[in-house]
Records
---
Amino acid sequence: MGKIPVLLLIFGAFFSALPERARADSVIVGALVFNVESFGSPGTTNFEIDNFTGSNNLGVFPVSDNLVFLNANLALTCGNATCVTDLGGSSAAFVLGDIAPPSATSQAFSAFDEFSQAVFTANFNLTSLALTDGTTFEGSPSVSFTLLPSSGQFLVAGVDQGTISDSAPVHGGDHYAGKFPEDGSGFADVGGHFLPYDVGNFDFSSKPGLTKCDQEEAIYSLNQNVLNARPTTAEKELIAGWYANNNGSRCSNVVHVLDEFFVPKSCQDAQSQNPQVDIVGFYQKANSRSCRTCHVAMIEGYNFDHYANLTSANTDRFAIVGFDNGINICGGSLHFQRDHMMPNSLVTFNRFWLSADPNANITPLPNQLELTSNFFLATSGGFGSFNANPPCPTPAGTTP
Ligand code: HEC
């Protein structure tokens, strides 16, 4: 257990600094540590794998279920000739079998052996995990973790270590587990989806042939391609809604004209039940302009075209939907990687923030920040760490 006390100290400080109930993208389930096992000549080193789940979570790690690492495997790449001789090749894979908590498994080597990387892979017996805070985490069925030298060419025993995490399989694909494995394992198909083509988000030329009306029919065909490439339910509904009325009147002689003012049924229904909240305004002027294209192509919990996913009671993705959206847009979270993450593309991000700046937005176009914050303040009672209106000051550096 050479380096584990150090790891625990680091994570102890990390976890206790987080007051918020955040929906994490991954949870730590174990550790891979390169240890000095015995000194002397030549001495031994070992790779130790710890399972930090179940009652072995030590009160610091988040998973309270007994998660078993099935068919665990450690693939090592040699960094020197001694290692090649000892392993019988420049790389070798070691079958570790199943690792249930609280076991720590290790694999020992001569201290003369140098390694340039260690890759741990395993399948998990559970994808739905109970966490110690009473919430549930929907994770991936498998893990691949690569330990690389923190400096220099070789792993240093007593220094190099890393955590093994279970990732929520949501990052841009239905079963994309945080990153694409570099070692050839995993499916090539990450479950990605085409994004629909939204006329309302494009600028068109005034040149004949390139005007919006001239392009509508071609864009309709592109959206038919989206429908032929395994769309999400939300994409199917959106594209059907866009072309439901064949808005011919807006472009004479064009059959398929996208309805830029489309509002999904769930938002229309919510609007009639909550006339005091500008649900349609938020949908038509902020969500559709800055969030919709990506979010309809994601797993259901992130589909902001279904009103339930935007309200706190019914979502499997957000602990507090107003809070999560607020920090992702405005910042203010100690999870700095979540701050200002949305909208998740530069042009959209700039346009979103510039709409809130009267010096830049002289047209003026609708203030998207205000529409979004008013929506979450009214429906969730909060927007990020801010409860006042205007809720989040524009931080330095976030607007161009
Ligand atoms: C360019 C694509 C794109 C755009 C535009 C976009 N998102 Fe996202 N959003 C994503 C992706 C991809 C994820 C999942 C990323 C992850 O968890 O790492 C995500 C995740 C989120 C999350 C959850 C993040 C977390 O930390 O749990 C929130 C909240 C969110 N988006 C809100 C918004 C809002 C609100 C808008 C519009 C103002 C928006 N997004 C625009 C792609 C986008």
---
Amino acid sequence: MTGTTRGSTHSSGPYRSYVYAYPHKTAYRPLGDGPAGRPLLSDLWAAERKDALSLYAHIPFCEVRCGFCNLFTRIGAPGELTTRYLDALDRQATAVRDALGDEEPVRFAAAAFGGGTPTFLTAGELERLCDIAEKRMGADLRSVPLSVETSPSTATADRLAVLADRGTTRVSIGVQSFVEAEARAAVRPQHRSDVEAALGRIRDARIPVLNIDLIYGIEGQTEASWRTSLDAALAWRPEELYLYPLYVRPLTGLGRLGTGADAPEGPDAAWDEQRLRLYRAGRDHLLAQGYEQVSMRMFRRADAPHDGPEDYACQTDGMIGLGCGARSYTSSLHYSFDYAVEMREIRGIIDGFTATEDFSRAEVGRYVDEDETRRRHLLQSLLQARGMRRAEYRERFGSDPYDDFPAELEMFDARGWLDATARPALLRLSPEGLAHSDALGPDLFSPEVRAAMAAYEAK
Ligand code: SF4
């Protein structure tokens, strides 16, 4: 929901890119020419463990396009587009489930609906989406964590009732700012009263975990106005809060306006300084209010129930993505459909998806070898506040992270980003290391992934 992926700010600053999945989709490429070149899903999944899969369904529709957003989504759904999209999702789910086979147990341990805005769908369409997950894929939504993203204007009582009834355990709402002028500056105009009403409806639906997304670094935002947003969010006692630094990236609304880091008059260093200051203020405020830090962005109320996955894709289990913006992971291939940020390109890709009859092969992706798997493990564990147990890494890979990544870890150490008190059992970031997660993450990218991302042409 909150568009925060690749960075476009200067390469030495603290805000280079948000690494929530490695490798990034911009390192994916078409998987061979012609049907023969594209791997069959049944072959890809044949030797994989399938008893603790994650299911993700991507709904690429929003009512408006937020100025900072570079996620795969379009504005509105003319005609019967949502129906056609769900029809395609149904065909895809059938093909994927067939490909998983029945020789070994197939079980889903977690599910999520993201976007875009899943609640752009009507209550009836959400029922259908849950049916696809349950009846086609075999996911038992009522017995596993199910997370759903929403927005203030689409979090209506009828939709929330469906979601609660079907087993949703977590609702995440993108608020970004409770200050109306800031919401306008981030090109997401909304009235605070509408946001508050939506939060009330979510609480009324009694879904166990509420997450609120907020953004800092918006033009005109001050420490005082940031505190206003934080306190307005805290008044709802959300179980989780995500604090996102604002990024301005190519082809987004703000990118086209030429504001923020890309503005000729906007000195990067001053903006970085502002974001770091607001980050620290936000972090300290939440810690003082009884929240614990899970990662740079994620905070959890210390007394909140917790049964969901952490702030990262599980290290070893597979992921099945449905929908044209969704990724799937086997142990050796990450795959998806084509990716774009520009509206016309996105519309074309969605139209192509809805017209697809044959979903039996992977289209676009990147093979992940042993070296990349180690990087991914280190990266995703290190970006968690609790850190990485070295023994766990050694158990999985038969080597020590200091043997595999000596240069990177020495560099982090020299910058004061590693917590010396956690050694030797743990590799854990210091508070400054966590603050610099978006610089540290990209430092761990392999040269090959870096080159592929650099060669990617934004569209
Ligand atoms: S509501 Fe839609 S446009 Fe706005 S950040 Fe979320 S996905 Fe992007």
